[in-house]
Amino acid sequence: MIKAIMNGCNGKMGQVISAICKEDPQIEIVAGVDLYDGIKNDYPVFPNISVCDVKADVIIDFSNAKAVDDLLVYSVDKKIPVVLCTTGIVGGTDGAGKGGIGAGSSIKICEYVAGNQSADAAFSAGGNDSCAGRI
Asked: Which residues of 49-69 are buried (b: 16+ CB within 10 A; e: fewer)?
């Protein structure tokens, strides 16, 4: 079973992905990350990815462009692949030198950027070859 962290778990897409995963025996959301804590989830929710201490195989991200730098620093440090679906990332992130987009993070981890696409469309299009077989 794939163990996933849902970054942006209490947003609209985070809740949709959580519900889909709950019905799929091949994946389990083991932790969530969201500043908003007004929704009850079946997994622990952390206010920031940097304080998440739950082990996972992948991070699914539907958060906020402002959260991407910390997410990529965490994923590089923990060596966890990321499906990055956050919108609003223009020209990379401020993470250059911290492991952000454009700073070689996709060389260190599997980083699949799927902006404004459904997961099916993104994966059927081939995506990032460095992610083949890892997500």
From this structure: beebeeebbbbbbbbbeebbb
Residue 23, both tokens:
């019905």
Cα→Cα distances 113→10, 30, 53, 59, 87, Å: 20, 22, 24, 12, 10
- 91 vs 60, higher pLDDT: 60
- pTM for the model: 0.74
Coil, strand or helix: which one is 53?
A: coil
* Spatial distance between the Cα atoms of 80 and 82, rounded to a whole number of angstroms: 7
- On the question of pLDDT at 120 being above 50, the answer is no
The partner residues of 6 in beta bridges, in order of sequence, read 32, 60
